[in-house]
Amino acid sequence: MVRSFSDQPVAPEVLDRLLGDTLSAPSAGNTCGTAWVALVGPEETGRYWSAATTPSWRAASRRWPGLSRAPVVAVSLASPEAYVARYAEPDKARAATGPRLGDSAANWPVPYWFGDAAFAVMALLLGATAEGLGACFLGNFRSEDRILAALGVPEGWRLFGAVVLGHPEGDDPPSGSLARARPGPEQRLRYGSWAGRPR
Predict the structure, then answer these.
(1) pLDDT tens-place string over residues 63-85
(2) Could you give the C-alpha distances from 115 to 27, 119, 143, 163, 171, in angstroms and in order?
(3) For helices 12-22 and 112-130, angle between their N-to-C axes, nearest 10 degrees
(4) Using one digit for the tens of pLDDT, what is the confidence trace for 10-63?
(5) Which domains does the chain have, with CATH numbers?
(6) What is the Cα–Cα distance from 37 to 51, expressed in whole angstroms?
(7) Torsion-angle region of 105 (φ positive above 0: left; ψ -120 to 50: alpha; else: beta)
(8) What is the pLDDT of residue 100?
(9) CA angle 164, 16, 44 (to 5 degrees)
């Protein structure tokens, strides 16, 4: 993840291609219940930052100067209603052995709308890397209602997060998470059953 950017614009044809590729990411039931709002340039990205952060956070954050220069913020959205409606259709209504998924978003043990949004975000992150750009993902920790309102998103959509995108530049303080030891494959990869051994 890159968290310090130059203000150099991303070429429009590159951005269009990257965002277009996200629309081909896997989608449960071919629901395609994800969407993006692409904010380009300081005026548009400023609407995101004003809704997503506070003046005190911006003043205290060591990453704010590098993030604020990014020329693109792509906001990832998902529609739970689209998936509930899709899984109420005849070919999917029999998919669940427990509560019917097509009855309510509350019946989903794993919300496919967030899974599909994650697939699309990963496509954008990988595509940005392939284009020589930097990117980082900002999760939905706070301010969801303010962000959706600031961007004029219709009711029923959920904020999954945002991808900040641009050309890397400047001081990019490393994440404190990098100091954590990563568990080895023997702790995370099994064959045949949980008791199985890594190959």
Answers:
(1) 999 999 999 999 999 999 999 99
(2) 8, 6, 21, 16, 33
(3) 150
(4) 999 999 999 999 999 999 999 999 999 999 999 999 999 999 999 999 999 999
(5) 12-174 (3.40.109.10)
(6) 14
(7) alpha
(8) 77
(9) 45
pLDDT range class, residue 121, cuts 50, 70, 90: very high
CA pair distance 76, 159, nearest whole angstrom: 6
Structure tokens given for 24:
């081909």
CB 39 within 8 A of CB 45: yes
CA distances from 182 to 32, 179, 192 (A): 34, 9, 23
Statement: residue 96 has pLDDT above 60? no
26 vs 113, 121, 137, 147, CA distance in Å?
11, 11, 19, 26
Distances in Å between the Cα of 188 and the Cα atoms of 178, 183, 193, 194 are 18, 7, 12, 10
Q: What is the pTM of this model?
A: 0.89
Burial class (CB in 10 A: 0-12, 13-18, 19+), 135: buried
Query: Is residue 163 within a helix (H) or strand (E), and if so which, with residue range?
Result: strand 158-166
Residue type, 47: R
The CA distance from 72 to 128, in Å, is 12
Looking at the chain, the whole-number percentage of residues with pLDDT higher than 70 is 95
